[in-house]
Amino acid sequence: MKKLIFSFALLLAGAALSAQQEHHYTQFMYNKLLINPAYAGARGVPSVTAIYRNQWIGFKGSPQSALVSFNSPFLSPRVGVGVTMSHQKIGLQRDFHMSLAYSYDLVASDEFSMRVGITASLRSLGIAFSDAQPNVGGDPSLGDARVNDFYGNVGAGIYGTVSDNVYFGFSVPRIYANAIGYANGSATLIAKEYQHYYAMAGGVFPIAEDINLMPAILLKYVKNAPFDADINVNLDIRKKFTAGLSYRLGGDGPGESVDLLAFWQASPQFGVGASYDFGLSSLKDYNAGSIELMVLADLKKRSKKMSNPRFFL
Fold this sequence. Notes:
Elements: H1 2-19, E1 47-54, E2 64-74, E3 76-90, E4 93-105, E5 112-128, E6 146-162, E7 166-172, E8 179-182, E9 189-192, E10 196-203, E11 205-208, E12 211-222, E13 228-237, E14 241-248, E15 257-267, E16 270-279, E17 290-298
Antiparallel strand pairs: 1-2, 1-17, 2-3, 3-4, 4-5, 5-6, 6-7, 7-10, 8-9, 10-12, 11-12, 12-13, 13-14, 14-15, 15-16, 16-17
């Protein structure tokens, strides 16, 4: 019976992975450039973000992903550029993604900003047959091969701020629907890269001296998949330490996960963060949760007038 339940859980996991094609991270509020090119340059200084995610710890073949991104103003505070590189492996599947982003601030006032952005991306999807573990005696059909295909795409987004304490955005990182799989070389399509639509919003609201409430939400939609959302509430203390909770919709339970987040601003230009996801779906009995580790660094000091530098912009 337990094997039957395990097989059913694995089937659900596969269905979820086929529906949500984009990489996702619990600490999305620190990692906006991955899904919205209009965020490039919004921090006002050159910035680097690095994240490692290990999902469903202890579940063989579970997703593992890593990301490094850089964004900065370019020649003018109104112009931003960015680059993102990410890698994800799920079982034998290997997914490498690189994108270049450009943004321009259409308004650029002290009270309101509205950036528009475009991105060009290159994605490599492959299967590492050499990492397979065949039966004793080997399987000569696997050989020592790695199959890769490359796909180009373009995306767009908007990112706005109000009074330096509220942000919002909407984006489609990949607009073109690439065909990414055919049956045995025939004309029968078995996989397609669908558009993912993202909407985000958040803010920083003082509730006591040196304490800020920082809610954030990320909405996700892709055709033929259930609507998804990450809902987060953080508390910031003295602009040094941030801790909070997130709830992720999805899965076959009362949600996909409940997440703990923490961030420490070690210096004005350097911070580290971590998160831990408690699973709520059928897979929760077969793994030890999911973890993320993050480093965020500004390569230049920011203006003192910017109220909450490491979270908000």
